[in-house]
Amino acid sequence: MLQHNPLYIFFILHPFLFSGLFGIYGTQKQTSDQRIQHYLENYKKLATTDALTNLYTRSFFKHMATKELQRNERDRNNLCLLFFDIDHFKEVNDQHGHAAGDKLLTDVAVLLKQQTRPYDIIARWGGEEFIALLPNTSKEEAFLYAERFRKTLSKETFSASSIHFNITISCGIAQFKSNYSLERLIDEADQALYLAKHNGRNCTKHFYEVSKEKA
Prior knowledge:
Layout: H1 8-48, H2 58-75, E1 79-86, H3 89-96, H4 98-115, E2 121-126, E3 129-135, H5 139-155, E4 158-160, E5 163-165, E6 169-175, H6 182-198, E7 204-206, H7 207-214
Parallel strand pairs: 6-7
Antiparallel strand pairs: 1-3, 1-6, 2-3, 4-5
Helix pairs in contact: 3-4, 6-7
């Protein structure tokens, strides 16, 4: 009698039907999960990475640097912060166009990445300024690092379309001391950078030289 029941074919086929339906559901869920994961990864990248240079953003640098300073306060290691600023960047934009300026920022970021270690924290601070936090680095080592990078850039020929030009950078260095806040460290490096600009650009200055200048 069961064979003559209209639902008989359903009872026979229901394992296959349900497995097919669950298979479709599983595939769709996997696709949905992958899409959500892709969106989350893109959102994280937008929140942490500068769109032009692919370096960290200013806000994410502050987040990472604060954690590093807390760790450094505990471990009592050397740590330095560096500000880099491209000299006369406005002239690059004015003379060669903003596309050339953007290309220059991208190229400088690539070179800066090549010069830093995996655990260094580097970011685009804003405009033509870059910032680097160097753990386990004395002020003497930071100076050598900054000078090496400065000289590398001064020898490099940059190009955009058929335009070729050279640049220089200025650098300011500050060394972390016990109980320093990130804001104080940034301010000291910024003052050192201003001194480098004031002394003719294309040079590296340390914050302790700022105190000597004011004395």
